[in-house]
Amino acid sequence: NAGVTQTPKFRVLKTGQSMTLLCAQDMNHEYMYWYRQDPGMGLRLIHYSVGEGTTAKGEVPDGYNVSRLKKQNFLLGLESAAPSQTSVYFCASSYEEGIHEQYFGPGTRLTVT
Amino acid sequence: AQTVTQSQPEMSVQEAETVTLSCTYDTSENNYYLFWYKQPPSRQMILVIRQEAYKQQNATENRFSVNFQKAAKSFSLKISDSQLGDTAMYFCAFWGGTSGSRLTFGEGTQLTVNP
Description:
Shape of chain A: globular
Structural class of chain B: mainly beta
Number of strands of chain B: 12
Oligomer: heterodimer
Strand content of chain B: over 45%
Order of helices and strands of chain B: EEEEEEEEEEEE
Largest sheet of chain A: 7 strands, mixed
Radius of gyration of chain A: 13 Å
Number of helices of chain B: 0
Helix content of chain B: under 10%
Radius of gyration of chain B: 14 Å
Distance between the termini of chain B: 41 Å
Number of strands of chain A: 11
Helix content of chain A: under 10%
Structural class of chain A: mainly beta
């Protein structure tokens, strides 16, 4: 049981390049989330999904897109990376929302130069 | 909108001593949940403790306990018998029924346990 995994762990992009971050969970969780973590700001929700085939915007969705084609996978895409997107990205999943614990992946450190 | 505030960016404590991390929040909701997450240097976010707002009894998990003051909107974390492995960033988080699926996090408190 691997829990929540994220690929890649580190990435450096040039401004304007695109990339996709992959999140996978093997706990059969319905809910999945993408957060970004910036110094002094805690974690902020980018997008989330309440089930296969669904996505919704979080607090800071601009510049990102997501897809949930399979229940176990949640992809985060950056179409045209900007230096402001330099951050650590965390994926999380939960059985249900809120009262149930969110399980986090190990994070992806992304630098955009 | 909910806000969560952690007013102590950094704290330190000697091994085996007790330390309390502060968290305040602002909400108009009556039913909600509060969490403390730990993020060690490995970056992995780990749930430490959870409190349901409708429960008057403070939650406890081994050396970790909370002081939940609903009227004051305060949710502090007490760590007893601090261990070196407790060194981490600690985040307070809020979830309320009308906030959608969003956990609102505080800014974090970096705790260092000194030998």
